[in-house]
């Protein structure tokens, strides 16, 4: 919330009435969880404000700001561009999504070793989530064997809900409303997923 409260130059522009549209984008898991809460607070303070909100993939985030299609973007990775300022404002953690009928579903905490032999839905190793998951398995001394590669955490949860094994997803995804057929379990040594707020410097 603090990150959005500090959007000084945008807030000044809105206060002067120069522009009543606030353009913001976010990574999918943030866009479906924390961003709606943040924007609800912003629109409560500026009742006439129009929001243009976009869900952004890793590939889209840089152009979104560099080409000034948006004012700000929230992401789980820093944007490496000379005209973009990325500031880390918080972090989430990785959790494990399992079917409600799973043998581990009643546990309050698990380890990577507990799911080493499970049918795993995961992310490509060159993605923010994928790198964190690979690091978690490496720290635990476990081989990472992926059954299905997915792009979005919400897809992984849907697969789990339909009996396709387990998935490591971020805690922001776990904050969303999900079917009773899925449980989210904490890890004893979770990977950390950073959150960045990004804006164009021009």
Question: What does this entry look like structurally?
Answer:
By secondary structure, the chain is α/β, with parallel strands linked by helices. Helix content is 31%, strand content 29%. Helix 6 (128-139) links the parallel strand 6 (120-122) and strand 7 (148-149). The protein is elongated.
Q: What's the arrangement of secondary structure elements?
A:
Blueprint: H1 2-5, H2 8-15, E1 21-26, H3 28-31, H4 34-45, E2 50-55, H5 58-66, E3 72-75, E4 84-99, E5 109-110, E6 120-122, H6 128-139, E7 148-149, H7 153-161, E8 166-170, H8 171-174, E9 182-187, E10 192-200
Parallel strand pairs: 1-2, 1-3, 5-9, 6-7, 6-8
Antiparallel strand pairs: 3-10, 4-8, 4-9, 4-10
Short recap of the structure:
The chain is built from 8 helices and 10 strands.
**Percent helix range:** 25-40%
Please, how many helices?
A: 8
User: Over the alpha carbons, how many angstroms does the gyration radius reach?
Assistant: 18 Å
SS content category = alpha/beta
Tell me, rounded to a whole number, the average pLDDT.
88
Outline: elongated
Main beta sheet strand tally, sense and closure: 10 strands, mixed
Give the ordered list of helices and strands: HHEHHEHEEEEHEHEHEE
Q: Low-confidence parts lasting 5 or more residues at pLDDT below 50?
A: none
Which percent range describes the beta-strand content? Answer: 25-35%
Number of E-state strands: 10
Q: Terminal Cα separation, in Å?
A: 24 Å
């Amino acid at each position: 919330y603090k990150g959005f409260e500090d959007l000084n130059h945008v807030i000044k522009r809105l206060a002067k009435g120069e522009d009543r549209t606030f353009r913001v984008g976010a990574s999918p898991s943030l866009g479906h969880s924390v961003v709606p809460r943040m924007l609800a607070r912003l629109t409560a303070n500026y009742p006439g404000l129009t929001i243009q909100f976009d869900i952004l993939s890793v590939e889209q985030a840089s152009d979104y700001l560099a080409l000034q299609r948006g004012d700000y973007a929230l992401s789980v990775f820093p944007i490496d561009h000379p005209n973009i300022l990325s500031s880390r404002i918080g972090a989430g953690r990785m959790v494990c999504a399992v079917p409600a009928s799973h043998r581990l579903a009643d546990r309050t905490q698990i380890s990577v070793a507990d799911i080493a032999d499970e049918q795993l839905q995961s992310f490509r190793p060159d993605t923010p989530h994928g790198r964190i998951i690979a690091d978690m398995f490496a720290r635990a001394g476990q081989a990472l064997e992926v059954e299905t590669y997915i792009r979005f955490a919400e897809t992984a949860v849907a697969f789990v809900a339909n009996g396709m094994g387990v998935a490591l997803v971020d805690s922001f995804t776990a904050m969303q409303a999900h079917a009773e057929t899925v449980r989210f379990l904490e890890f004893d040594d979770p990977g950390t997923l950073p959150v960045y707020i990004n804006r164009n410097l021009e």
